[in-house]
From TrEMBL:
Compartments in which it is found: Cell membrane
Keywords: Cell membrane, Membrane, Transmembrane, Transmembrane helix, Transport
InterPro entries: TM_pro_TauE-like, TSUP
Positions of transmembrane segments: 6-39, 74-94, 100-122, 143-167, 187-204, 211-229, 235-254
Protein name: Probable membrane transporter protein
Family from the record: Belongs to the 4-toluene sulfonate uptake permease (TSUP) (TC 2.A.102) family.
Pfam families attached to this UniProt entry: TauE (PF01925)
Main location: membrane
Membrane topology of this protein: Multi-pass membrane protein
Length: 255
């Protein structure tokens, strides 16, 4: 790897760490760069996953204030994320690269619709519960847990826009501030990347130079993304989620 190639990977890592902390889809920045350097797709995907782990941790650290009082959710959702992430990592090595090519853009599109419609849908759900005299499950119930598990399987497999999936599910089924949900999302992404990385260390091929450069860049980007993301009002954060999700769909359909 030349100096300029290394610099490109490092800068991509900073960008990926930043956007991952704010919403997700940082893989769309680093993965194409690794492919452009000549790494095979699976090797690039594995190297990218390993390198983004420190960025997930620094992003979660930057959002630590918003995690206060969410320990129960962290434990409950974290277990689903770890199991799903491991399952997705296994699928990455077992299935052909084209396996999710058609379903992923549709999945992200549905998630974006939920993100846009979330305020209206949440209001309708609250009104319905008021009429029926019921209350919302504080942790979203089994439906949210199953949704997060499936989103984590996808995250362990590829990961682009998994943050969009998490935010759409939690935003719809939890009566919670969007920034606190974003803090949860960062921890879940970190768990998925972490368990997939441990699995890949033992069974997959990766490029240590690329891993190290992305790790350094994503760590810095995670801290930067937390500073930016925590200042965004809910409407702006929702707009960023939609824009990133649309970019992910375009990238996946046009590649």
């Amino acid at each position: 790897m030349t100096f300029w190639e290394a610099a490109a990977v490092l800068v991509a890592g900073v960008g990926a760490g930043t956007i991952n902390t704010i919403v997700g889809s940082g893989t769309l920045i680093t993965f194409p760069v690794l492919l452009a350097l000549g790494l095979p797709p699976v090797t690039a995907n594995v190297s990218n996953t390993l390198g983004l782990v420190p960025g997930s941790l620094s992003g979660a650290f930057g959002y630590r204030r918003e995690l206060a009082g969410q320990r129960r959710r962290l434990l409950r959702f974290g277990l689903a994320a770890l199991l799903g992430g491991l399952g997705g990592a296994i699928l990455l090595l077992a299935l052909p690269p084209e396996a999710f090519a058609m379903v992923v853009p549709a999945l992200i599109a549905v998630a974006l619709v939920l993100v846009v419609a979330q305020p209206w849908l949440s209001a309708r759900l609250r009104a319905r519960r008021a009429r029926n005299g019921t209350t919302a499950h504080p942790d979203g119930g089994p439906v949210l847990l199953l949704g997060l598990l499936l989103a984590s399987v996808y995250g362990g497999y590829f990961g682009a826009a998994q943050g969009v999936l998490y935010m759409s599910l939690m935003g719809l089924l939890l009566d919670e501030d969007l920034q606190r949900l974003n803090a949860l999302k960062n921890v879940l992404v970190g768990g998925v990347n972490g368990v997939a990385a441990v699995f890949f260390l033992f069974v997959a091929r990766f490029d240590w130079t690329a891993v190290a450069l992305i790790a350094v860049g994503s760590t810095l980007g995670g801290l930067l993304g937390a500073k930016i993301g925590r200042r965004l009002p809910p409407t702006a954060l929702r707009a960023v989620i939609v824009l990133v999700g649309l970019a992910a769909i375009a990238h996946l359909l046009l590649r």
